[in-house]
Structure formats: C-alpha cells, structure tokens
C-alpha cells in the first residue's frame, strides 16, 4: 500500500533544466521529457516504469533482486546525517482536547478472531500464549470497501452495549479507505471505485453510509484515519499519471469526508505518509501547505484533529540511531518528522496533533531502501497503543495496521501484484493485501519489542 513516493520526493519539486540530470535527479520514466543522461560520476538507473534516477557510481547497482530496489535519498548521501541521534522525545502531556483520553478503544472482534485462529495454529506453547495476547491490543478497522460498512454498524452497537454495561466510554477506531483510483502510485491496494466510472459519486455514497451507521449510535466515539497515502501522493507523485489524474477527485472526496464526518462528531487524522516520504526537508513545506488548505477548505473543523503518520509502515517513533537507509534526511524517525512538520502546519492555521502507527515498528534497520513497504522481513510488533507519548504534538501511539494481514501478494501473476512485494527484504510467499499471513504474524510476535 505504501507507494514508492520517497524516491520521487525531491525530484517532483524541482524543475529539470540542464541537459544532463544531476546526481539523484530523475533521468527517465513514462511521461518524462527531461534529460536522460546523468552528470559524470552517476548512472541513469531504472527504478520502475515511471522513474529512473541518477545513482552515484559508474555502473548500475548489482541486480540482487528481481527488481532494482528503489532509492529513497534525494539528498547528498555521501554526507553523514546532519543531526545526531537524540534521546526520547521531550514535550508536555497530550493536548487537553485529546480524543483518546477518557475512552477505551473497542476491540474489533474481526481482528480478535483472526488472532484466535492464528494462535490456535501455533504449536509452541510460549509463542501461542504471546500470539493470543495480541487480541487485547486495539487496532483500527479498515473500511476498504462498501461491503465492510455493516461491520461498523455491528461494532458500534456492540461498543454501545459495552459502554452501557461497564460505564466506560468506548471509542471505535476506523480507517476511511475507499477513494476512487486509490493507491495511485502503487498497485497492491487498488480499490473498488474508479474515477472514470462514477467514482466520486460512489465515494460520497460510501461516506453517506458510514455517516448513517454513526448516526444510529451517536454516543459511542469514533476516531478515523483518513485515506492512507492519498494526499501524500499529491505532494510527491504528481509525475505519476494516475496520481495527476486523481488530484481533483481526491481533494473533492476528502473534503466531502471531512465535512460529513465532522458533522457527526468523528475525530479525524488525515494520513501524512512518514518520515521517509514527506519528512524530507524539501517536502515539508508543500505538505504543510496542502494539509492546511485541505483543513481550511473543510471549514477548519475542530474534529479534524491533525495527521496520522507511519500508517502500516516500519519507522520508529524515536530511533536509537538513524537507520543507514535514512542517510541524507535529518528527519530520520517519526518524532523528527512531526517536530519539523507541526510548526509549519500551525503557522498556516492548522493546529494539528498526530497519531503515529507503531504496530510493526518494534525492530529497526530491516529494509534495503526506505521506500520499501511490503511485508518487511524480520519486523516485530512495536510499542503498544498509549496516550503517554512524550510529545505535546502526539495524541496517541496507535496500531492502525492490524499486524498479520498482508501488505500485498508476492505472486507475480496476480493482477494486484506490486514488484515491491518481491524485493529481497519482503517476506515471501505473501498472500493478497489484507488477507492473513500466518508466517509473518508469527515473526511479528516473536520479534515484538517491547517483548510480549
Ligand atoms: C498466482 O496468481 C494466479 C492469478 O491470479 C493464480 O492463478 C495462481 O494460482 C496464483 N499462484 C499461487 C501460488 O497462489
């Protein structure tokens, strides 16, 4: 689901003027009309059909994988990261209006059932017990098709019952994820609607159905992450034809979602990629501009709390030391990214706070390239959801991605195959996005950090 955006990051923002492309600049790809040769000392190297890049060296990198790994550094990779690693983030307590405070996340029975089935398939007794304990960790329910919306109704009704019987206010956590031409820069998570075929109207109907369910159970709180990858793709991937074509529709659809869901009191965090995507210094300004304008165009609703980062990704909130793949970006983890972005949002009138996905961020230094996102080998469950975040900007650490569900298939014959899922750092064989990946789940359990 994560796009290859990071590799396009800087280039999308800089005009290409010289006859020879600079080191790390784009030098080819579908629709590319700029220079196709690189300055001396670098070689034009194909990353994917849409993007070739000038990589330092005199020959292409060795073909260790079926597809050349993407390169995520647009900076000056020969220079050491400019900022030294810091200790745990400092800051005040969560904002007074933090919607995660005073509520208990409702545990999705769907995920609990997946976990129960997964645990029962494990023979090692210790691992089985640890695996079963994941059923008590709140995750988000992905409403990735209209057919999932009745499940929201079921969850809301059950949460209301629990709330009434225990006196403990419940919150149902959802991901709104059904834009037409979804996942415009990758393939694994293509959705059910297309812009060409009535997509915007279908999307508005999808939102209306969610709103109708919420109206039936008005006193259970709902917190939503809005459309992973969509707006971030508009910051860096407009050189991908499908993203350029989707821009107007994405903005209209997200505007509709924010307005309609605000009207029924849903607290929202728009997806903002991660440190290795919008966290590159050149992308921060354009990202802040886009998110602030989306916020203001939707009426500056207090229910639009801010942004979600690292959704389904693997970055640490606060890395002990920078992963070598982050070289060139001082914002090498989520706390650096958030601390850099939040003031820019504020100065543009968006007092954003954040949620950060740490569901699969327990282990670091696993990836060959920062842009790799598919079923990364060796990943472990990360910090459990908490409002004790250590940052004034972060409302809660969350688990948005239900760990154990696949990011995408490694079957190259599948129509939804994305080559990222067959890179050497991707666990294989992997089933289709969203379906259960037992071997991967077992690794997440055994590599959990903190341990289970
Ligand atoms: C791979 O995908 C193709 C096309 O969907 C399917 O026919 C085939 O059975 C799949 N192979 C595996 C090993 O799942």
Summarize the structure.
The chain is of the alpha/beta class and 452 residues long.
Features:
single chain, alpha/beta, 8-stranded parallel β-sheet, 3-stranded antiparallel β-sheet, 10 helices, 13 strands, disordered N terminus, binds 2-acetamido-2-deoxy-beta-D-glucopyranose, carbohydrate metabolism, polysaccharide degradation
| Structural class computed from helices and strand pairing | alpha/beta
Mean pLDDT: 87
Number of helices: 10
Give the proportion of residues in helices. 25-40%
Radius of gyration: 21 Å
Number of strands: 13
Query: What's the oligomerization state?
Result: single chain
Give the low-confidence spans: 1-18, 60-95
Strand content: 5-15%
- H-E order: HEEEEEEHHEHEHEHHEHEHEEH
Bound molecules: 2-acetamido-2-deoxy-beta-D-glucopyranose
InterPro entries: Beta_cellobiohydrolase, Beta_cellobiohydrolase_sf, CBD, CBD_sf, Glyco_hydro_6_CS
Region (Disordered): 61-95, 404-428
Family: Belongs to the glycosyl hydrolase family 6.
Active site: 183, 229, 407
